[in-house]
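User: I'm putting together notes for a lab meeting next week and I want to include a structural view of one of the chains we've been expressing. I don't have a solved structure, so I'd like a prediction I can at least talk through. The sequence is below, exactly as it appears in our construct file.
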Amino acid sequence: MMKHLIAAALLVATTNAATAADLAPVKLGINKLGAMTNVVFASKTGIFKKHGLDLQIIEIPLSSQGLLILKQGSVDIVLQIPGTAFVAKEQGFDVALIGQNETAGTKAPVSNAIMVPVDSTVKTIADLKGKRIAISSPRGQGFAAMKMLFQNAGIGIESAKLTEAPFTAITDLLRTGQVDAAVALDPYTTQIIKAGYGRVLSFYMMETIPDQPVGSWWAMRSWAKAHTKEAGEFADAIKESHDVLNADPERARKEIADYSGLDPALVKDMPPIQWKSQVDPKIWQALADMMYQQGELTQKHTVSEYFVN
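Assistant: Thanks for the context. Below is the predicted structure for the 309-residue chain, given as structure tokens.
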């Protein structure tokens, strides 16, 4: 009997070792954001292994470091907002799109917002002319969307008084009246609303290009071409994680709270993360066009340049 048990144990160990050996190693660089919950969920529930991947998750402190770390070879795939990857490619980083993770959404409420104090007399974007606005950066995809929004309202962004401030500071800036408006994203958008310090004036990214991608997966083109199977399986695993969490919002909220450390009561009031893996070339082209029109890119580009050829 003991011999049979030992033989069975050896068979299981050998099978597990063989299975582990069959997995393809992939190093993934992410920032610790609520939108990365699906990645951690897929890792701990075995979705990546199901797709033949031995995924190593590497947390990158700042999103601005992602593409440099990718180019150095420290990771194989990295999370990046598309606009930043567009600019990097134009500057000589030969990156290729592996997949999409999150969009700005199509139906309010969503995460990205321009907020004003609750008692503000500002009612429209045009009312922001001459006002003090806190923004996280005067560059990039979000700022391009803001400029487009202002143009659509018949004013230029230069007509406002812009102040750079991190997202962590905007609650106090609005509460104390140091600014007349601020650009926010969740969890700060929901925190400001719940605290009664501000209200949403515009869900600006959704309103400029509905469903524009705000989180996507990139690799160096050389890696993507040499690892087409791994890239494809990674994209499929991401889609599966989206399908599971989108189908069960309560489970998704719990996973977000567990991963991010946010108060579950706050997560309950936040709009759902807009996880969506399907890439719409028309939307991506509209995004590339906006980046060019707003001066973030120096040349016009076709979206096919970003795909793996």
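A couple of points you could mention at the meeting. The radius of gyration is 22 Å. The chain has two domains: 2-105+211-306, 113-208.

User: Perfect, that's what I needed.
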